[in-house]
Amino acid sequence: MLHVLYLVHDVSDPAVRRRVQMLKAGGAGVTLAGFRRTTSPVAEIEGVRPVDLGATRDGRFAQRLGAVAKAAMSIGAKLGAMSRPDLIIARNLEMLALARRANAALGANVPIVYECLDIHRLVLRDDFVGRTLRGAERRLARDVKLLVTSSPAF
Q1: In Å, how far are 131, 137, 147 from 143, measured between CA atoms?
Q2: Beta-bridge partner residues of 107
Q3: What does the alpha-carbon distance between residue 11 and residue 1 come to, in Å, rounded to a whole number?
Q4: Which of 51, 75, 100, 121 has its CA 20 to 30 A from that of 69?
Q5: Domain residues of the chain, as ranges?
Q6: From CA 151, how far away is CA 63, in angstroms rounded?
Q7: CATH class of this structure's domain 3-149
Q8: Are 87 and 4 a contacting pair, CB within 8 Å?
Q9: Which candidate, 43, 133, 145, places its Cα nearest to that of 103?
Q10: Exposure of 123 by Cβ count < 10 A (0-12 exposed, 13-18 middle, 19+ buried)?
């Protein structure tokens, strides 16, 4: 059975539930880990108990960066009891950073899939911030094995 580590920016997002359903319907075992936009951790999604990486807020980019940095330091311990996944799916840019960190913490060379949901407005800026984010995405995605987009029109 294929074992997928699915890293998400909001475990309470209905699209995450649908993706977990899809993976399970395809016969995969799923480990779900991610941030939440709720005050307390989510108990389960489709029979999967998520690994809670903490709370983040919509529209608070600096707060999210801090949460990602904090999670990067502890992701090895949080995933320590998990068996080596066959595949890691990272649901957006900050989760791609954590996927690379999880791969290193697990001592593995697991293929990573980048699920790019959209192009954030900050990435489109033609200034230092935009160039920095585009450079970060380019660097983080250099070893990605597959890119999944959220829409055929995207």
Answers
A1: 20, 11, 11
A2: none
A3: 23
A4: 121
A5: 3-149
A6: 28
A7: alpha beta
A8: yes
A9: 145
A10: middle
